[in-house]
From TrEMBL:
<keyword id="KW-0315">Glutamine amidotransferase</keyword>
<comment type="subunit">
    <text>In the presence of PdxS, forms a dodecamer of heterodimers. Only shows activity in the heterodimer.</text>
</comment>
<comment type="pathway">
    <text>Cofactor biosynthesis; pyridoxal 5'-phosphate biosynthesis.</text>
</comment>
<dbReference type="Pfam" id="PF01174">
    <property type="entry name" value="SNO"/>
</dbReference>
<dbReference type="InterPro" id="IPR029062">
    <property type="entry name" value="Class_I_gatase-like"/>
</dbReference>
<feature type="active site" description="Charge relay system">
    <location>
        <position position="173"/>
    </location>
</feature>
<comment type="function">
    <text>Catalyzes the hydrolysis of glutamine to glutamate and ammonia as part of the biosynthesis of pyridoxal 5'-phosphate. The resulting ammonia molecule is channeled to the active site of PdxS.</text>
</comment>
<feature type="binding site">
    <location>
        <begin position="135"/>
        <end position="136"/>
    </location>
    <ligand>
        <name>L-glutamine</name>
    </ligand>
</feature>
<dbReference type="GO" id="GO:0006543">
    <property type="term" value="P:L-glutamine catabolic process"/>
</dbReference>
<keyword id="KW-0456">Lyase</keyword>
<dbReference type="GO" id="GO:0042823">
    <property type="term" value="P:pyridoxal phosphate biosynthetic process"/>
</dbReference>
<dbReference type="GO" id="GO:0005829">
    <property type="term" value="C:cytosol"/>
</dbReference>
<dbReference type="InterPro" id="IPR021196">
    <property type="entry name" value="PdxT/SNO_CS"/>
</dbReference>
<protein>
    <recommendedName>
        <fullName>Pyridoxal 5'-phosphate synthase subunit PdxT</fullName>
        <ecNumber>4.3.3.6</ecNumber>
        <ecNumber>3.5.1.2</ecNumber>
    </recommendedName>
</protein>
<feature type="active site" description="Nucleophile">
    <location>
        <position position="79"/>
    </location>
</feature>
<feature type="binding site">
    <location>
        <position position="108"/>
    </location>
    <ligand>
        <name>L-glutamine</name>
    </ligand>
</feature>
<feature type="binding site">
    <location>
        <begin position="47"/>
        <end position="49"/>
    </location>
    <ligand>
        <name>L-glutamine</name>
    </ligand>
</feature>
Length: 193
């Protein structure tokens, strides 16, 4: 089984680890550069992207993350993790940086405030309906030509899942439902790459 790290400085780490294990991977927490070196792939959970960015800098993980992603490590970002994998963001705080890797513009908090959190069924990667939880979720404003759109929400208007080569991102939290469809898709990606 591939060893998949979960970025564990902030966010809902346990839920992703459990979904990854159900999907057939070995899940480990990543908090230091040495732990990042040891994994085949990485999940960046939901949480708060501004805090993730600051902690990644403080714990000397931001540059190592950029380097591993530049060198082709598969990564999956959910919600705040999607923001972290975006090359460009809208609605960030002053000076907010990302890891980058996916040629897209992501709008933070696009679906509204906390009270506007909602659940919906989305057709993910043509694999049929998947239960998705949106919590102060971003959406993808625009994508470059190398980015594949895997899911849309709000009557097809909003891009909520994308893939560019070894990088996968969703606006929503699949780890909060019993449905491991997205994690299985990612584990398959990691096995193929
Ligand atoms: N709004 C959060 C952010 O900007 C993301 C919310 C989430 O991950 N559930 O980072």
């Amino acid at each position: 089984a591939p060893t998949i790290g979960v970025f564990a400085l902030q966010g809902d780490v346990r839920e992703h680890a459990r979904s990854l294990e159900t999907a057939g991977a070995k899940a480990v927490a990543v908090r230091r550069p040495g732990e990042l070196e040891a994994v085949d792939a990485l999940v960046i959970p939901g949480g708060e992207s501004t805090t993730m960015w600051k902690l990644a800098e403080t714990f000397d993980l931001l540059e190592p993350l950029r380097l591993r992603i530049k060198n082709g490590m598969p990564a999956y970002g959910s919600c705040a993790g999607m923001i972290m994998l975006a090359d460009r963001i809208e609605g960030g705080i002053e000076g907010q940086q990302t890891i980058g890797g996916i040629d897209m513009v992501v709008r933070r908090n696009a679906f509204g405030r906390q009270v506007d959190s909602f659940e919906a069924d989305v057709d993910f990667a043509g694999r049929g309906p998947l239960r998705a939880v949106f919590i102060r979720a971003p959406w993808v404003e625009s994508v470059g030509s190398d980015v594949e759109v895997l899911a849309r929400a709000e009557a097809g208007d909003r891009i909520v899942a994308v893939r560019q080569g070894p990088l996968l991102a969703t606006s929503f939290h699949p780890e909060l439902t019993g449905d491991v469809g997205v994690h299985s898709y990612f584990v398959e990606m990691v096995r193929e790459l």
